[in-house]
Amino acid sequence: MPVLVLDGVTHLYNKGLPTEKKAIENINLSVEKGELVGIIGHTGSGKSTLMQHLNGILKPDTGTVIVDGADIWGNKKAVREARFKVGLCFQYPEYQLFEETVYKDIAFGPKNMGLRDNEVNKRVLRAADYVGLSRELLDKSPFDLSGGEKRRVAIAGVIAMEPKVLVLDEPTAGLDPRGRDKILDMIKNYREATESTVLLVSHSMEDVARVASKVLVMNKGKVEMFGTVEEVYAHSGELRKIGLNVPQVSKVFEILKSKGLDLGTVYTVDKAAQLILERGGAVK
Amino acid sequence: MNDKSIIQFNNVSFAYELNDEEATVKPVFNGLNLSVPEGQFLAVLGHNGCGKSTVAKLINSILVPSDGTVTVDGLDTSDDSKITDIRRTVGMVFQNPDNQIVATIVEDDVAFGPENLGVEPSEIRKRVDAALKAVGMYEFRLAEPHRLSGGQKQRVAIAGVLAMNTKCIVLDEPTAMLDPKGRKEVMDTITMLNKERGITVILITHYMDEAVKADRVVVMDKGSVVLDGTPKQVFKNVEQLKALGLDVPQATELAYKLRKQGMNLPDDILDEQECAEAILAALEVK
Amino acid sequence: MIRDITIGQYFNSTSPVHRLDARMKIILTLIFIISIFLCKNFASLGLMVAFAFFIVLLSKVPLKMVLKSMKPIAIIVVFTSLLNIFYIRGGTPLIDWKFIHITSNGIFTALFMAVRIASLVVVSSMLTYTTTPTMLTDGLEKLLSPLKLFKIPVATLAMMMTLALRFIPTLVDEIDRITNAQKARGANLDDGNFIQRVKALVPIIVPLFISSIRRAYELADAMDCRCYTGGPGRTRMKQMKFHASDFVSLGIMAIFIAGIVVLNHFFGAVLVK
Lengths: 284, 286, 273
Known about the structure:
The complex is a heterotrimer of chains A (284), B (286) and C (273). With 284 residues, chain A is an alpha/beta fold. Chain A has one domain (2-246): P-loop containing nucleotide triphosphate hydrolases (Rossmann fold). In chain A, 41% of the residues lie in helices and 23% in strands. Chain A has a six-stranded mixed β-sheet, sandwiched between helices. Chain B has one domain (5-248): P-loop containing nucleotide triphosphate hydrolases (Rossmann fold), CATH 3.40.50.300. In chain B, helix 3 (106-116) crosses helix 4 (121-134). Chain B binds chain C through residues 57, 60, 62, 84, 87-88, 91-92, 94, 96, 98-105, 107-108, 111-121, 124-125, 128, 142, 144-146, 160-161, 164, and chain C through 10, 12, 132-134, 162-163, 165-166, 169-170, 173, 214-215, 218-219, 221-229, 233-239.
């Protein structure tokens, strides 16, 4: 059974005004449990609006959002439950930290859920483990940490609610390659360990290619493509037409194809090297 | 490009004083030497905390070295009486586009620098219009900055530097907070300023795809320069860069992997076109 | 709610009102505000409203936008009007039923108050609609410059005002972002008693405060780099010059004030002592 279903979701900005605009239009989407979906699209494509519908921060003007079998706008209680079932981590989440210690900050979400202290404690420690924060850091002030560490604390704060669906908006924005790799590895490990569903919003097709099992492409408020990474990245021409940057290796393979050497679709360097070497072997 | 260097780091040491109990100091550099010729497009590449942002602040006299000297166009940055001259020679663009725009109208913001320098009003008007045209923001001159995209805001910030008639622009991770479209806008703008107007550009970044566009790349780690050369010379050190926590272009990495498996490819591939052609050539020879 | 506040918003146009010198506009606005309280009867009040309407038409600012600026104060107007209706005594009694006493003076005062507050808001928002914040602060700086004699740092105060205006929209966006992020962690901002609600604001105020300090430091560096010293020697791109139209507008204002005085004299006061 899918864990997240969007059925005909439309959201209008400036409703009723002459400037009314459809931020997202008729979104139909179904995400299975355990999937890691990369959501790509340029600024203004409706990614952020879509994201804020998943946990009821925004209410659709038409259509329904069903999380774990329940319509999140079905009744008042359901909206609040949706906040905890779908953990939303916004861009630059380190700017939401506010507690005196890392521990307390991670505990903020679980406490709001009304959990007992020992359960909160367990969840904070588990979340800290997933994001790779050592125990000594938990008693420190979050403001004494490095940028990358702060970001991991903020993500842990969402993970600690143990949501069925974790949604991360640009979790690697502004990080250097090492910080980015740490976060991507962490997301991968988290999903494997918890078997929960993860949605990763990103500008980087390279990042998405590295971790996602499926890709959702948004354009002008609509779903442009939704499929496995292979299926979506095979349409590199269309992706470029809507202003997305395909990975450089994919471009290398496009050029090879235009010169008569068709080796298929590729989006990671390892796969590219493997295909070329196989071809080289065959020529030999 | 000529041989005269506009920025010169001579044996520069710098340490931050930490406000903890022991009042310890955290050294950033020890004896850094760096010289930037006029008209060069230099990229300073390194991971966070390698000291590259400190380089920017030392150039602009926001910080002064604890030992050694930094000179800008022959002026010593530790000489307080020269600060205005230094800052009108080297302009600075920061990472966060919101935190460097001071006025509520785009053109008023661009005018801020020349106004501070006491330039004649009619001359400021000319400079502001020219600067906004140069970065392609003239049609937005009456817009309110908070309604612009990140890329547009950074271009306004660049115009603000141009209006001071600076010879050199230092950009401290100007694209870190931008989307791909904004990044391209900013990169196109600074490349144009360098190539067409001969402005010296020092781009501090951790994105290798931006560093590839420079004339020269300096890779920093733990406060010292570990690699220095053209992009082709620098990026061929795939193993070393990866160990430093940096990326190389995928085309370079692919070529490197294939070469390790015995394919005959050049070791200085940067872009997809070179890479594809080299692969075709190598496959046909076999 | 916070987004409804339109004071400080500029409406871009090239109307005669926009072209007036900012200093003159500040002076004219002050005179107009005084004239609002000079009106003693419906004739002069009518003239004042008509003149305010004339300025709005002349400025080419859409009437809808002007009305929008009244939205946040609508409650205050209604509330003070009701107070006036029920509490002001004197004049002809209109209703005298149990504890409700309404008199003609009460009705008139309420009406006057409502019209006055509304005109006050319209006229002061006209100033900000037709003057860029930069011109406005420059104008204030010039008008207040005699205060420099008393060692009051007028230029620095004007710079602070510009920066405040510049950062209001940025901070409003930031509050939105932080609020959404804390809501996503289950922060409950809408329920509970007063103390609970105040406590619930901590997760929003602390990050806002921290990021504002960070912004202030970065802004200070950026301003240093652009050679801002706060001292003398600063010039301005946009020079302030009085034109003929400024003096004409002053003349029109004088005629308007004269009209109010004359109407006050001929028709007498509407309130009965």
